Structures are given as C-alpha cells and as structure tokens.
C-alpha cells in the first residue's frame, strides 16, 4: 500500500479521555488500557477516516513538533500499526467512516 | 393461586432496592444478610427473585449485556440469570438460594446504576477516620483486609472488600466523592457499617519493609483505578462514562501509593497524611519531538 494512501479511523469499541495532557484510551472489549503521549494523541485525534496519514503527519505533527518529516512518517506508521493490532485504530487504503465498528 | 411475595427494601449507597421472593427461608436469609441495610424508604428499583435448582456459586465469568437492541440488561452466570430494565427499574432474577449469588446480582445491579450516575464500585477496603473516608485498594493480597484488621478502635469500617463511591458529599453535591458502607464482606466476613463520609484519600496498597506514601501520575492513577473498578457490562457507552468518571475522580480526590509494613503504625501514617491536595494539570507543551515519538507510552 503506498504510504500516502493510508487512512486511519478510531474504533467505536474504545473509550478515550484526555487528562493532564495525555490521552487515555481503553478498549472496551478487553479492557486494554493505553496512555498516549502528545504526539501520539495528535495522530489519534486526527484519525477521522478521511484524512490520509501523510497529511496528518504533515499538518498535525511536522507543523507543531520539530521533527524530520520522513522520520515522523515512519514513526507514525509504526504507531498506527501498533494501535491497529490492539483494535484501537482501523487502517485502510480507502477512506473509512469515522469511528468505525471493528 | 400464586404464592404471596414478601418484600425487603435494601438500601446500599443511598439507593433503595426492593427485593421480593415467595420463599420464606430465602426472605429470612436476605433480611439476615442485609441487616443494617434494610430500609423503609420507597424503593427506586425492584428485583423479584425466583428460586431454582441452579448450580452452586460459579467461578464462571459473569456476562452482562443488553438484550439485542433493547435497553434491557441480561446478567448471567452459572448460578444465576437476571433481566433488568433500567427504564422501568424492574428486574427478575432466577437463582438458587445461595447468598453469594444474591450478593453478586446486587453488586452487578449497583454497578450498572452507579455507572449512569457517575459513581462506581471499587475493589477496596474503606473506613472512616476523623470524619473522612479512606480507601485502600489493590489486587488480592495487596493488604485490603490487613489494613482493616489493623484499624484502631475509633475507625468505622465501611467495607473490607467492595467500596461504594458516589459523586458529591453531604455538604456539597458538587464537591468530591462520598464512600458508603456495604454489606459485601471479604475475608473479614464482616459487613461494613451503613454510614457514609466524604472521601479523603484513595491509597493503592503495596506491602513493604516500611511505611511510605508516594504520589502517582494522573495517568497511572486512572490506570490503577480502572483496573480495580468492578464493572462487567459489555457496553461501550457505559465504559466511556466510567472512564470519564475515573478521570473526574482522579482530579477531585488525592490518590497515592501506600507501601506499608503490616503493623498498627500504618494508621498513624494515614492519619497524619497531608490532606492538602493540589494537582496542577497545567503542562508546558514542548514544541519539539518527544524522544519516544510516537510510542504508545504504556499499555496494560
């Protein structure tokens, strides 16, 4: 899948809450609990299913954090893969409905 | 002709629930078990019990789910089956006469009611000391029962196992949380007192060579809290609400890790703990790459 065609959406089977600058995410199905740092939170919040990941990295990460764009893209893909393996994010090469059921 | 039903109203956490049965022995059992929590208040909810020959108390995991697309809850374990409709406030339970099954059904029902009202049940011992409730939470073996056994005589035990928490307190509904006594006993096999008090501090327990109190980060506090909240429902909306409640609790209530050596001195530490709680959530956002970018910090 070409990098610029990755779309991500938050699963509906999760609960999320921001507290003290961190995003807490819980998978309702198995109670797995995650704490996201600020950068990960920016990606998570931008996961609307319509915006390509590359655009999210460009607009939400590179604009706000001092980071090499290619490295940021690589790290973001790794992060997205990890969260999708826990059912927190849905990944597709096509646009997704926001907050997609798993 | 249908047998007449006898009704006892059991009020835990300020929520009166009418329990009815046509079985005299079972009625006596529940009156005895919840003595101290029987109430003359008008019930908010009603549960009808039908006794069956269902198996003994089951170690199976309980399932709590909506019945299809309806609002009605189905609550099932090897030793009981229950249906409860939150719109009418009425439910029906089929179980054997075992008091532990009865406790489980009531705990689950309260957990559902509390989740909607911004409260929760917590795996924690709790006790009133100098007018404030202190909670001692942790996994099995962390020391919940030990803390209650070590309590000085002037301490009022609310529970040694399941703490009952609701938002607000007697002085101000918008301020903090209150802990209520419950009849749900753990190893101590003693029901708590039917009293309540504003929550002073929640301690997560660890046994160690000396007494020590440490601060927890907000994220760690929420993580620990969610791990110890009793909640069974497979319902994303309620899980979201519960997470919001846990975050609110962390903001409003001091939460610490208490490493303790199991003797009576630990209660001196609890009494002397500085209750001036202030936690600032203002955090400077650094416009630079987090060295761990974008690693998920932790998961459990």
Q: Could you walk me through the main structural features you see in this protein, from its secondary elements to its overall organization?
A:
Chain A has 102 residues and is α+β, with helices and mostly antiparallel strands. Chain A is built from three helices and six strands, in the order E-E-E-E-H-E-H-H-E. In chain A, the strands form two sheets. A three-stranded antiparallel sheet of chain A has the order 5-1-6. A three-stranded antiparallel sheet of chain A has the order 2-3-4. Chain B is of the alpha+beta class and 300 residues long. Chain B has two domains: 112 residues, no CATH class; 153 residues, Phosphoenolpyruvate Carboxykinase, domain 3 (Alpha-Beta Complex), CATH 3.90.228. Chain B has six helices and 17 strands. Chain B has a seven-stranded mixed sheet with strand order 1-2-3-7-6-5-4, with helices on one face. In chain B, helix 4 crosses helix 5. At the A-B interface, strand 2, strand 3, strand 4, helix 1 and helix 3 of A face helix 4, helix 5 and strand 17 of B.
Helix content of chain A: 25-40%
Q: What's the average pLDDT of chain B?
A: 87
User: Which class best fits the helix and strand makeup of chain A?
Assistant: alpha+beta
How many domains is the backbone of chain A divided into? 1
Q: Which strand order do you get reading across the main beta sheet of chain B?
A: 1-2-3-7-6-5-4
Sheet of most strands of chain B? 7 strands, mixed
- Termini distance of chain B? 56 Å
- Report the count of strand segments of chain A: 6
At the fold tier of CATH, the topology name of the largest domain in chain B is: Phosphoenolpyruvate Carboxykinase, domain 3
Q: What is Rg of chain A?
A: 13 Å
Task: Give the helix level of chain B as a range of percent.
Answer: 10-25%
CATH architecture of chain A: Alpha-Beta Complex
The poorly predicted ranges of chain B are: 276-300
């Amino acid at each position: 899948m070409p990098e610029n065609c990755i779309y991500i959406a938050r699963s509906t089977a999760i609960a999320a809450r921001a507290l003290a600058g961190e995003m807490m995410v819980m998978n309702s199905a198995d109670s797995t609990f995650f704490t996201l740092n600020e950068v990960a939170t920016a990606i998570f919040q931008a996961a609307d299913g319509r915006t390509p990941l590359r655009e999210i990295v460009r607009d939400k990460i590179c604009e706000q954090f001092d980071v090499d764009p290619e490295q940021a893209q690589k790290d973001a893909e790794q992060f997205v893969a990890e969260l999708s393996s826990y059912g927190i994010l849905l990944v597709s090469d096509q646009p997704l409905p926001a907050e997609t059921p798993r | 002709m249908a047998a007449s039903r006898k009704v006892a109203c059991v009020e835990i956490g300020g929520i009166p629930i009418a329990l009815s049965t046509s079985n005299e022995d079972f009625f006596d059992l529940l009156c005895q078990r919840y003595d101290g929590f029987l109430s003359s208040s008008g019930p908010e909810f009603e549960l009808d019990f039908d006794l069956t020959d269902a198996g003994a108390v089951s170690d199976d995991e309980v399932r709590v789910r909506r019945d299809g697309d309806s609002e009605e809850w189905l609550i099932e374990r090897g030793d009981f089956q229950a249906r409860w409709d939150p719109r009418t406030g009425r439910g029906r339970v089929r179980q054997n006469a075992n008091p532990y099954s009865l406790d489980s059904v009531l705990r689950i029902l309260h957990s559902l009611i509390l989740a909607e009202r911004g409260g929760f049940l917590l795996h924690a011992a709790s006790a009133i000391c100098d007018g404030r409730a202190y909670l001692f939470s942790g996994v099995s073996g962390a020391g919940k029962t030990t803390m209650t056994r070590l309590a000085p005589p002037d301490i009022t035990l609310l529970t040694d196992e399941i703490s009952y928490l609701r938002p607000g307190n007697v002085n101000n509904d918008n301020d903090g949380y209150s802990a209520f006594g419950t009849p749900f006993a753990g190893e101590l096999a003693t029901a708590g007192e039917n009293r309540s008090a504003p929550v002073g501090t929640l301690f997560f327990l660890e046994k160690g060579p000396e007494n020590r109190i440490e601060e927890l980060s907000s994220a760690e506090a929420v993580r620990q809290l969610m791990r110890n909240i009793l909640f069974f429902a497979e319902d994303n909306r309620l899980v979201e609400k519960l997470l919001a409640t846990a975050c609110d609790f962390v903001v409003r209530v001091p939460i610490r890790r208490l490493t303790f050596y199991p003797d009576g001195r630990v209660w001196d530490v609890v009494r002397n703990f500085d209750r001036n709680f202030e936690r600032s959530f203002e955090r400077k956002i650094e416009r630079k790459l987090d060295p761990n970018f974008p690693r998920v910090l932790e998961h459990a």
